[in-house]
Request: fold
Amino acid sequence: MAPLTQLRLLTCGSVDDGKSTLIGRLLADAGVVPEDLLEQLARDSRRYGTCGDALDYALLLDGLQDEREQGITIDVAWRYFATPRRSFIVADCPGHEQYTRNMATGASACELAVVLVDASAGLKTQTRRHTYIAALLGIRHVVLAVNKMDRIGYAEEPFRAIETEYRALAARLGVAQVTCVPVAAVHGDMLVRRGARMPWYRGPTLLEHLETVVVDDPATTAAFRLPVQWVSRPDAGFRGYAGTVAAGTAAVGDALVVLPSGRRTTLARVLGANGETDRAGKGEAVTLVLADELDIARGDVLAAACDPPALADQFAAHLLWLGDAPLLPGRPYELRVGTRSAVAQIGEIRHRVDVNTQEHLAARRLDLNEIGEVQISLDQAIPFEPYAVSRTLGGFILVDRISHATVAAGMLDFALRRAANIHWQHLDVDKTVRAALKGQRPRCLWFTGLSGAGKSTIANAAERRLLALGHHTYLLDGDNIRHGLNRDLGFTDEDRVENIRRVAEVARLMVDAGLIVLVSFISPFRAERRMARERFAAGEFIEVFVDAPLALCEQRDVKGLYAKARAGQLRHFTGIDSPYEPPEAPELHLHADRDSALAMAEQVVRAVLADDRA
Reply:
């Protein structure tokens, strides 16, 4: 019998259920732990162990100092081993709720999950959470290892009760294949050897099942998909498209389509790791040469012409939030799926999922380790497949555009088809015509700074001066807008993001009307000011930073807002209990502690006039 393919599996379960002990003992009993490592284990067991004079097999995996001292798993511990029948990559995942993102990282790379349950305790909240996350990340094969059978005298009845309850849970969560094995990891029962203490169990040992289980990979038989990672042009006579085949097989002569352009061609050559070949299959890193010279770039997808993936720019998706700062709907993020990137906005959080009970809860934000179902809008249509069909074209991450930190992992569920029905309507009267009629160059002057810095006073004086010079202007002031358009918004971070999104869209429409629009908003976050800038053409957005020390702003506090914030009567106040992120490179930097409001207004007007002359 030919060896089976490599199996990637994770272990998870409640704290103290014995995940690390089970894998450590499995490795040792399978004879894959070198002698020197066993000697090191004996020394570590005497220093850190919890098993008296016996070896503490958990220490084979708990490599971090904090883990060894606390007796828990924090990070994902990866181990590789092989038996004569199969090779394995094992992820030992943490059980604590605060390490949900660690477990999701492990689950996203695995095909099978070993879920541990303490036989004396039964299913716990964490068991349900881990099974839900495993199912969400696409794992459809689960082994329920009912551990610590020695604590219940190796009795069959409690095991069967746990098995029945778990199978019902797995069915609700869409886990197709469940195998239940009773084990006593600390003694090695039913891991590699059967032992004599559970004669009533006639199924396979844990290792026997792992060695023989067949985990079907739908990507192997699916239609051909290759996300282009790199365009190879070593010289003028060669152009190839390199990447790893995400699904299916393509042979020389097959018809392919390039997405998102939709151009069709034929596969001419395949260059693999061992030279030229006649086909490319799932998982292979190859360079493809096409029959036609097409405009193809990194992020494009080469697909079977007879069965291409869909294109969309709006999606329903599940999102696991990984960032320390919360997800704020409306804030732009960079979405990376396959080898492609796009600018994404979360338009709505449909609900947050309680990972312990799977209950759907209303939410306006997602915090660290929380999972939600969301609507995502992109700035471009991308080729995609639902995550349940393709992890490569359906799984994505979100990256903060300011810090470049990965803040979320997500799974595309389906496209929101109505997005394909919305198109830009051509208008004969455009911005150029309107601006020419007014004899000016339209733009947006965006005033930002702390409350009390003098933004509105400066913007008001600058508008008066521009109007006197014959310009057509409009001033959007933060307080005034909150009386009408934004009266439904508060001052939480989520509301501040939406506040700026709305006023940026209004300002863009006013610039399109040919006006010079002055926007006076605190706009405390760099991400939202960047989002506002991107609504305008190059040169149309002028960021004006009214820089005033906090002490000066408090001294000017005619409304008494700072005093209320200091007293705890006014929450989410910028500069006190909500941050202000100063601009890093504003077009105009005004210093309110040095110049008068009229002098600073003249600086603004001079900048506009100089820009006009340029």
Observations:
- The first helix runs from residue 19 to 29.
- The chain has four domains: 7-216, 219-304, 311-418, 431-613.
- Residues 443 and 537 are 9 Å apart (CA to CA).
